Amino acid sequence: MNDTNAPDSAESAWARGLAGGGVSWLARAVRLAPGDPRIVLDLARVRLGGGLADVRLAVEALEGLAGRHDVLAVWVALAMGRQILGDVAGAAATLEEVLARHCVPEEAGFAALAGRVAAAAGYGGFCGVLASGRRVVVGEGRRLGAPDMSVLGRVEGLVRATEEGLGGWASRKAAQETPPRVMLVDAAGIRRAVKFGEVLAADEHAPFLNRYGFTLTHRQLRGLMPPFALRGADGAHLLGSPVDPSVLAIAPVPASHRGKPVTRLPPRRKLAIVIPLYRGLAESQACLASLLAALPVPKPRIILVDDATPEPALAAWASEMAARHRLTLCRHTENLGFPAAVNTGLAAAGMRDVLLLNSDTLIPPGAIEALREAAYAKADTGTVTPLSNEATILSYPNPRGGNKAPSLAETARLHAIAQKGNGRRTAEIPTGIGFCMYIRQDCLAATGLFRPEIFAQGYGEENDFCIRARHLGYTHRAALGVYVAHIGGVSFRAAARGLTARNLELLNRLYPGYHALVMAHIGADPLAPARARLDALRLRAAQSGRDSMLLISHSHGGGVARQVAAQMKEFRADGLRPLLLTTQFPQDPATPYPWPALLCEGEAADYPNLAFTLPEQQPALLRLLKSLRIRRVILHHALGHHPAIRNLAAALGLKQEIVIHDYAAFCRRVNLLTRPVENAKPRYCGEPDANACITCCTRHEEEIFEDLAAPQLLRRSAAEFKAAAAITAPSADAARRIARHFPGIQPRITPWEDDSLPQRLTPPSAGPRRIVTIGGIGPSKGFDILLDCARDAAARNLPLKFLVAGSSADDARLLEAGVFVTGHYAEGEASCLIATLKPDLAFLPSIWPETWCFAVSEAWRAGLYAVSFDLGAQAERIKATRRGATIPLGLPASRINDFLSRWTP
User: N or C: which terminus of the chain carries fewer CB neighbours within 10 A?
Assistant: First the structure.
């Protein structure tokens, strides 16, 4: 989150909300830091003290939190909320969750709540367990609560070797207010209790987890024999345990080093498939079912390794499957972690090749054979990994991962597309990925097993294996024609990221330059053409015989994106297929234009690999578009695109249609604003001749979005308008301005919304007024006007309170001036957000002649009259409907405030 001291930070809003600012400030904090569940919890708690509408919002938020964070405070608040709403059964079920998995807090308030909930549900009392282990039994007869002792005693944490000795943290989720009990046991069986220090700063991935830190120096470890096991009171290892500090003394070898290439292709071995099991019965069942249906002939040996699963149902199922299908089942008596489980499976495989599978994968028919073919295509291939939805550098379609896990049917379809598009193609990668990795037996024999003594429960062990194999002359390859689904993250959810960071640090220590090696691969992205082929095939497969409508626009959102989405929806309703050619938003927004053109069906995530750098890749883009039966090309906006985008329609043999959203056709700044002198506030330019435009752009070169000089821009736009199949403007005002600059051009007026629909508006009160401004308020939307009005109102002690439903160019300055800013809102959320502010009147201080102004519509939908300057479509709409008032552009803040204080319809 932002700097705590900054007045516009989430922390500042959070603190003000907790200090008595209430719902508004906490809601702002949530908007500024939507990923922080602690603020969501605090907002919900405050709402529990409000009316029923607030309580319903609180319960909805708490239900979402409870699904992601198993935290006592969340469950208690949810039980309270459901009780307030009269949901007797829901409150009782919630309390049941509390008593089963959390120690009972020694607070009278909790006992009173639990008693009320239990009594309302027909119980005589409740029972639970204190952090000390003592049972609490309240009431007589049938009691609510069935404590699960295996969960209540569970300890999780992380340990790592450091230069000083050992360090880490531990927590008992069921009783987070007290440090857990952790014991260090050395190789000789000597036991020592671990002493904890202060609670560590919250981890952003587990913000509710109280992590108690500890350090064990070499002096404290003197006389003990490594490796050291650190176990909680439940007997389970902390992640990273057992640990041996001597790992830090291993001589490093550069990751980039390559051994002498393997040149002799070995004879093909039989295959064994190794599947470690720990958690996730449903995922494991789906994995094995898909595998059994996809086995090649001759059938490989399947080896299940039960790594002491804590799920009895999973253990029983594994036994049943082994007996029914004649599978090999290996069992650990205690949980040793993924690397050790893999090693057990590798040992059982004997002299076979091994396909290592996570238990949360889905294997389509044909995938195993294709992986095997790739493994034996080159003599130096050590491992082969397929594409997947979640496979780090082999993720598809988004190469950064986060792709939704497909069903088995969808997995089979994607595999078929991969086979069609990429066939037997492979590409070298720096490391295989362990979720589904084919290991050739000669590589395994030369490299050795995984190293649990270094990587403990896992994460990074297959990377270590692959770098060691690289040093022996083996390469690792991606099978570009194979796709396997991977759910991901089933086992060690809570501390997985900590263990990943620990092990990645070890990888870079053992193999200097490992991170740079991987990043160089990501930067070069040799898999990009393969992913693009798959995207193109998926896009064509979705054609379904329909004609396509191609819309061209930018990726900056706003009113343009809203109208593009609306038009695409209309096309779909008519049985047509809309396609959007937008700009690919870069990871660094400061990347200069032009950006690549990205083809999709409305969302950038649809086909993220169909990005074309123009003009170099224009032929490839044209080939793809010609295969998609494009019947119309509609240019909404070319901002950020290469100018070659303007010739696309002609290259397709079509006349382009043009939609007016702003004045980019004749204004290099797009919005007709100028600054008369350097650092002056922007103002409407008045639309002078081309010479004045040249002077304006020469005087102030910032905020210019078009490279062409004014005369050339006018000539290009005139030619485009003349050649266009149609020109559409949303308002008469916008059409008149276009016609004034381009004689003979008469845009068709098509309003974006129907202003004739009835609206129920409430006149502003006669007393103090709350004035709301709606949207993203930057200089063109009147930021400076709003700031001046707020300062004037404060200076004259006027009964005006200014609010922004949305965000601004500088929240800090507005907040300092007394303007409350909610923070950015999502599409479709404006009306509800405005209602929470309880405004009396909408003030829309935009200083440019907007072509439509969706903020006007939002104000009316919220039941508010609107006030704007007498300029553009915003004024045209207000005058036509009489749903507000207009004031002269250029009025000083004092005159504006006087008007806002007194105006009534």
Answer: C
